[in-house]
Please model this.
Amino acid sequence: MRVVASRSERWERERGTVVWSARGSGPSYSRALDARHLSVLAAVAAPLLVAAVLLGFLMLSAYGPGGRWWATIGYVTAFCILAVSLLRGTPAFLPGALVFLAIGTTATAFENWVLADRGRVADCTVLDVDTRVVTLTRTDVDDYGFTTDTVHYDYRLDCLGGAPATLTTGSPAHRADRPLAVAYDPGGRVDPKPQAHVDIDSAWWAAGLIAASIIVGVGWTLCEKEPW
Model:
């Protein structure tokens, strides 16, 4: 015995077919949307994870047991997370470059914050300045090598109270036989630096780079070719 569907039932089935056909090709469309959502989530989560891991290890380095080894572990872990994310394609190159810059900016901002929080200022006299150049040669995936030269300025100091005895900067800070105010950590967990270079507002630069990486990464993902 054949059951004849009513006109309304046939219309609902046809309407459902039209809507389904207009939206995509079934399961493949659903998988494409899921991949897009995961890419957006990764573009947000990767920079935040790198920053959170690095800050956590820096906090242990400055305030927890074990000393500066925690900072080394934090840098290695942060760069590994970033490298794995780049190999998986999220974030893309430009957002990844912003995260790379944020790692260095975050480290500098944290050191400034520690020196402002518990550091002391010593009145010192610069006894001697030694300039050294560190040459680093790298090779990319195409076996193309390039060399980077970084200049370091090593200062030998004579400070009231005896500490600190040395200071290293990446830019000229002072000439020999001149007074210099130096901020230093009594616990020795953060390198000393000229008091004039201690800028707690540098944390905003680190936060801005992380935010820019998220915005660019999400925009990059959303501007890719639509899955339908």
In short: The two ends are 42 Å apart (CA to CA). The longest helix spans residues 27-63. Residues 1-5, 8-26 have pLDDT under 50 and may be disordered. The first strand starts at residue 120 and ends at 139.
